[in-house]
Amino acid sequence: MTQGAHILVVDDEVNIRGALVTLLEKKGHRVRGAGTGEEALEELEAAPADLVMTDLKMPGIGGMEFLRRLKAKWPETEVVVMTAYGSIDTAVEAMRCGAYDYLTKPIDRERFPIVVEKALDRHALATENKQLKSRLDTRTRFDQMVGDSEPMRRVYNMVEMVAESDVTVLLTGESGTGKELVARAIHHRSARANGPFITLNCGALPENLFESELFGYDKGAFTGAMATKLGRFELAHEGTLLLDEVGELSLKSQVDFLRVLETKEFRRLGGTKVIKVDTRIIAATNRNLEAAVKQGDFREDLYYRLNVVPIHLPPLRERAEDIPLLVNRFLIAFSTQYRREPKEVSRDAMRLLRLYAWPGNIRQLRNLMERLVVTVKDAMIQPEHLPEEIQASKEDARTMLVTLGTPLEQIERDVIQRTLAEVTNHREKAAKLLGISLRALQYKIKEYGIRA
Predict the structure, then answer these.
(1) What's the count of helices (H) and strands (E) in the chain, helices before strands?
(2) Which of 212, 202, 209, 258 is nearest to 235 (CA)?
(3) In this protein, which residues make up the domain named Sigma-54 factor interaction (predicted)?
């Protein structure tokens, strides 16, 4: 039998419900119980189930109406209905409405595990097919990461190296550089690819909600806790949990998280049962955590726990050679989405896009391309179609800022790339501007792997 499945048992008879819950828990499943259809819907809202076993004759909305609402909202959940021997016709009707099978009461102890196993096998197969289709559609999501620059090649290499292990990864970089995309790439190339990928935006949560979101809560844990809710840690069991903006956690929340990170054990709020999870952690931040540690805003022990393998995402201004690739990808995607004729970017407009500093990084570029697809009627995007701040970047076209401490090889490579862009890849003009021979330039282009 498939083990570790999430099962919800719905029956208004307490003794029957309790017996079935106990029997299924002994098989290694995570089982919840509900006494009415309304209560069961609340449980499913808190956390979907792989299999629901429900009585058909219940007070309130009744079994058939509960089945219809369940299948309308969670069509992938398998349902086995339970009914009295004289109500077989109702059970058959339930199967027409989407139930997988039925059991007659009193429950046959020999048939019961067989029906459960078959229902879970069907759910597992459907889930596997859905995940396989998703992975084929995105080619494991790696193709969603666009760029052929040296900084991005380093990112790709790191993703390949860490994906197959369960090592904790810390993604750093400015807002909009694609940290969640990299986290998804790591997940989809790992052995956990068939498991869930769950995200938690730490920056969007007030301190008093962090525990309930991360660990969940049991029914009755506090006023308003009408049903048990699974936390993100539990939902990410056998998968990956991305903690985005982890640098925004309060010191108290950092202590709570560190404890679970070390033990992989926790209790839901209001609960007594210790829950152990098998979850991979990826953290992401746009803050300098090392500086935050020195300032006392971030715990040093948590920092070292998270910073096992750091992967830095470069800002777009440091990978300007990737901008044409990104522009092309976004223009094609949005032209398809909005059913517009494909657009191209003129050389002058592309030159301005490459010169602009992009404080919002890829997210800002993506939003601009979406706007241009919708608002520009011409097939060719010209400089005048671009926002004023990007048009103004032409004033700095022949200026290049160099950060103190940048390796000379990197500076030389960047100067050659910028010069080639300035003369639209005309090598003889570039060599003349750089004051070197054409042969020397060609050697440098090959040495640095510059595409020109």
Answers:
(1) 19, 16
(2) 212
(3) 145-374
Distance between CA 322 and CA 33 in Å, rounded? 53
Phi-psi region of 264 (alpha: psi -120 to 50; beta: other; left: phi over 0): left
What is the Cα–Cα distance from 162 to 184, expressed in whole angstroms? 13
Q: Is residue 301 within 8 Å of residue 321, measured between CB atoms?
A: no
pLDDT band (50, 70, 90) for residue 447: confident
Rounded Cα–Cα distance for residues 159 and 142 (Å): 10
pLDDT digits (tens, 9 = 90+) for 124-179: 888 777 765 554 443 444 556 888 888 888 999 999 999 989 999 999 999 999 99
Note whether residue 228 is domain-resident.
yes
Element (H, E) at 121: helix 111-138
Which DSSP helix (H) or strand (E) runs through 348?
A: helix 347-355
Domain boundary among 286, 312, 338: 312
Here the contacts of 134-139 (C-beta below 8 Å, separation 24 or greater) are 135/188, 135/193, 138/188
The range of the structural domain enclosing residue 128 comes to: 6-135
* SS3 assignment, position 423: coil
DSSP assignment of 69-93: HHHHH-TTSEEEEEEEGGGHHHHHH
Which whole number is the average pLDDT over 424-437?
Answer: 87
Could you tell me what percentage of the chain is helix, strand and coil, using 3-state DSSP and rounding each to the nearest 5?
55, 15, 35
Same domain flag for 297 and 157: yes
